[in-house]
């Protein structure tokens, strides 16, 4: 099995980031930067990140490899300790509602007074300004208000909850990208800045294009071009599901050639081209739904093996981590005591990108090593 290459150098290798955030967006952004070489210190309240209450696995996924300290920022001692760390840091990530950091005496103005080149990244539901800025919310709220369900997606369209926190991950991706740029810019200019990351803005940046298309075709509903009857999810005879990713017409022709002998309705001339099928969305979808309900998933896997049809079984959690492609790409690794699996950084660097430590720290585990003014511990002290 190929070994994970060790990076010889990263432009973020000596970047120091204080992660004050909780739950998903901020910790995921900080994790990505850690995987890219930055040195991340997670600063928790005395009771710890709220994510710890959701179980070891939930916390470990987003916070492995980070040193963890505990500070009560409502006390003078806690604030002084944090400001001392901020003097030597490149960035601070926080996820409080707008105004909280200022009330704690740790807003951007206070931080840059201590360290002019510091970057502060504030991740909030609706941003630091605007009529919704002070409103409470979580992933589903931002999806609802950013048009996620305004985009028709299927012939038999339903409003259903996404399986992962899509808007949180969108915000984390934009936050980590922006932090990398802002940190490098501050090193060149000597001046930091305040990044205002709105989770709602982030997911709106993803939904806006498709939502505008839907708005322009609001009278046709699922008649919009993005709804394709042969690019969808279908249930099989054993209650499992498969997906077809047919967009280009050549894939329809491959499907038709593979199944046409047994299902001659696929060969009808009115289904030959994409425009023809788009005009008959209901009947095409019903036809495919009926065909795929006739056999169990394993039988369909055998039918499509070796073909050029974009067919995939929908894997369950028990199957996912043993999938041969996942294994070959080494996307997943074991953490801590081996009871938890987590994803590596998903981009392969030809120059190498080594693993961050697999350790999952307890609340305040690194207070003694990190907080003293003697400096920051070496990354290898975690291993």
Could you walk me through the main structural features you see in this protein, from its secondary elements to its overall organization?
By secondary structure, this protein is of the alpha/beta class. It has two domains: 16-208 and 330-382, Rossmann fold (3-Layer(aba) Sandwich), CATH 3.40.50.10540; 241-313, no CATH class. 37% of the residues lie in helices and 13% in strands. It contains 15 helices and eleven strands. It has helices at residues 25-35, 56-63, 76-86, 100-103, 108-114, 139-145, 166-189, 199-216, 249-259, 274-278, 281-292, 297-304, 317-320, 324-329, 367-370, and strands spanning 16-19, 39-44, 67-70, 91-94, 119-124, 194-198, 231-235, 241-245, 311-313, 332-335, 340-343. The protein has a six-stranded parallel beta sheet with strand order 3-2-1-4-5-6, sandwiched between helices. Strands 7-8-9 form a three-stranded antiparallel beta sheet, covered by helices on one side. A two-stranded antiparallel ribbon has the order 10-11. Helix 1 packs across helix 7. Mean pLDDT is 92; it is low at 1-6 and 374-383. GO terms for molecular function: transferase activity. Pfam families: CoA_transf_3. Keywords: Transferase.
Short description:
This protein is of the alpha/beta class and 383 residues long. Helices cover 37% and strands 13% of the residues. Helix 2 links the parallel strand 2 and strand 3.
Any key phrases for this structure?
single chain, 383 residues, alpha/beta, Rossmann fold, 2 domains, six-stranded parallel β-sheet, three-stranded antiparallel β-sheet, 11 strands, 37% helix, elongated, disordered C terminus
């Amino acid at each position: 099995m190929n070994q994970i290459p060790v990076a010889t150098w990263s432009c973020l290798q000596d970047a120091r980031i204080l992660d004050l955030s909780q739950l998903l967006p901020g910790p995921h952004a900080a994790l990505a930067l850690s995987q890219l070489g930055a040195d991340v210190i997670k600063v928790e309240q005395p009771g710890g990140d709220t994510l710890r209450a959701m179980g070891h696995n939930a916390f470990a996924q987003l916070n492995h490899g980070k040193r963890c300290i505990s500070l009560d920022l409502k006390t003078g001692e806690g604030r002084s300790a944090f400001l001392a760390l901020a003097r030597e840091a490149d960035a601070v990530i926080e996820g409080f509602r707008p105004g909280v950091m200022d009330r704690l005496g740790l807003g951007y103005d206070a931080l840059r007074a201590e360290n002019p080149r510091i970057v502060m990244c504030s991740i909030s539901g609706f941003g630091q300004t605007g009529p919704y800025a002070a409103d409470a919310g979580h992933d589903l709220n931002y999806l609802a208000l950013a048009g996620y369900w305004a985009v028709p997606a299927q012939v038999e369209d339903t409003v259903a909850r996404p399986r992962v926190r899509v808007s949180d991950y969108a915000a984390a991706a934009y936050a980590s990208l922006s932090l990398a740029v802002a940190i490098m810019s501050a090193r060149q200019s000597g001046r930091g800045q305040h990044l205002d990351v709105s989770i709602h803005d982030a997911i709106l940046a993803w939904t806006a294009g498709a939502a505008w298309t839907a708005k322009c075709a609001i009278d046709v509903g699922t008649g919009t071009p993005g709804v394709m009857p042969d690019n969808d999810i279908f249930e099989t005879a054993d209650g499992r599901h498969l997906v077809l990713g047919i967009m280009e017409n050549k894939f329809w022709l491959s499907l038709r050639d593979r199944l046409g002998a047994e299902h001659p309705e696929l060969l009808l001339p009115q289904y030959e081209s994409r425009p023809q099928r788009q005009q008959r969305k209901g009947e095409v979808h019903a036809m495919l739904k009926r065909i795929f309900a006739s056999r169990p998933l394993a039988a369909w896997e055998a039918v499509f093996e070796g073909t050029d049809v974009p067919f995939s079984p929908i894997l369950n959690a028990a199957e996912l981590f043993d999938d041969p492609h996942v294994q070959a790409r080494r996307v997943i690794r074991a953490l801590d005591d081996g009871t938890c699996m987590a994803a590596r950084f998903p981009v392969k660097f030809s120059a190498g990108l080594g693993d961050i430590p697999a350790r999952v720290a307890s609340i305040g585990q690194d207070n003694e090593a990190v907080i003293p003014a003697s400096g920051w511990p070496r990354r290898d002290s975690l291993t």
